[in-house]
Amino acid sequence: TAADGFVHDLPGARVVFAAGARHRLPEETARLGLRRVLFVGGDGPLRRTAGELVAALGGTVAARIDEVVQHVPAAEAAAAVRTARRCGADGLVALGGGSATGLAKAVALEMGLPVLAVPTTYAGSEMTDIWGRTDDHAKTTGRDPRVRPRTVIYDVELTLGMPAALTAASGLNALAHCAEAAYDPAAGPVVRLLAVEGARALAAGLPDAVARGRDLAARAETLYGAWLAGTALGAARMGVHHSLCHLLGGAFALPHAETHAVVLPHAIAFNRQAARAALAPLDRALGAGPGGSAAALWDLGRRVGVPRSLAELGLSREDALRTAEALGARAVTNPRPVGPGDARELVLAAYHGLRPA
Ligand code: NAD
């Protein structure tokens, strides 16, 4: 409550959110004063868009990296830094999901260059100061203001071709940012409002965005929710859900968004007692029944067809137990303390993937 007091500190990016906003990229790079851009991303289905944007930027593009690997392997990050140095880059444009943004951030972390992000999934990395890197199967993350993109261009048209499976999993990834920001005791009232409104928009938009990928209204609502989710992620401390997903992503290279989709209902159920008051607005925003947000998000996951369990993602029970040990040994800020027994309970729940009671 307001009587408890709070700290409000919400650094943000300039956000341009509109259908067709990608056409404003040259104007926005000029606004940042960029003359030698390293263009990152735009592989596979985004190749044509990347070609269009690079052509529109013309001589401003000093170099391109189009192959992007998930979870920012240290070797790729080092190679990108070398490319940026070699071409004398004065800034980066990242086109793609969290992996493209993540690679641009790795260069920004090393060289302090400004990033302009054009996100194409709901990952939310474009709104945060969080960087990640994977060395030898361990993922390290940290926070640094230098990696937070200065400008973000959200163009809903770039999301219309996102396959249904990625749409569903990525939307639940964004919902995870909302949930963990909502129950972070240190998050102030504005961040909680962003988190709850983000969750509402994501839950409202996602089913139609999955069922009819080219539904512009549903896509826009979902992308709007993803923006708020990313903003909340950038302004709050993440709890046990994100810790567990990072461990799984780093150690077993499980697919990022799907892992979040699987773990989320169980992480919320795990925190339900300890964070009852904080979760109440989220329950309302999701129109949750007696099972609260945990069951509501499990049901949403089933409706949009995301994987149900860590077992289904190919994790062995042995590796699940090993992960629980690692999680129990970590210092995690979370409403409910995470000792070894608690960690095992959570990981096994996600491993089996049954609907939280
Ligand atoms: P991704 O960026 O790895 O993209 C997944 C796949 O989808 C890629 O093959 C990509 O080419 C394709 N794709 C992306 N957009 C598309 C579109 N519109 N249409 C068709 N295909 C498209 O996946 P992601 O889930 O966005 O990002 C995951 C990575 O981001 C992880 O490494 C994760 O750790 C990181 N992340 C970081 C933060 C942060 O704040 N630092 C936040 C969220 C995620």
UniProtKB/TrEMBL annotation:
| Pfam families associated with the record | ADH_Fe_C (PF25137), Fe-ADH (PF00465)
* MF annotations from Gene Ontology: alcohol dehydrogenase (NAD+) activity; maleylacetate reductase activity; metal ion binding
* Limits of the Fe-containing alcohol dehydrogenase-like C-terminal domain: 167-345
Record carries keyword Transferase:
no
Q: Which UniProt keywords apply?
A: NAD, Oxidoreductase
Where in the numbering of this chain does the Alcohol dehydrogenase iron-type/glycerol dehydrogenase GldA domain appear?
A: 14-155
- Which portions of this protein are annotated as coiled-coil regions? none
Q: Which InterPro entries match?
A: ADH_Fe/GldA (IPR001670), ADH_Fe_C (IPR056798), Alcohol_dehydrogenase_Fe (IPR039697), MAR (IPR034786)
**Alphabetical list of PANTHER family matching this protein:** ALCOHOL DEHYDROGENASE, ALCOHOL DEHYDROGENASE 4
Provide the family line. Answer: Belongs to the iron-containing alcohol dehydrogenase family.
The name under which this protein is listed is: Alcohol dehydrogenase, class IV
Species annotation: Streptomyces aidingensis
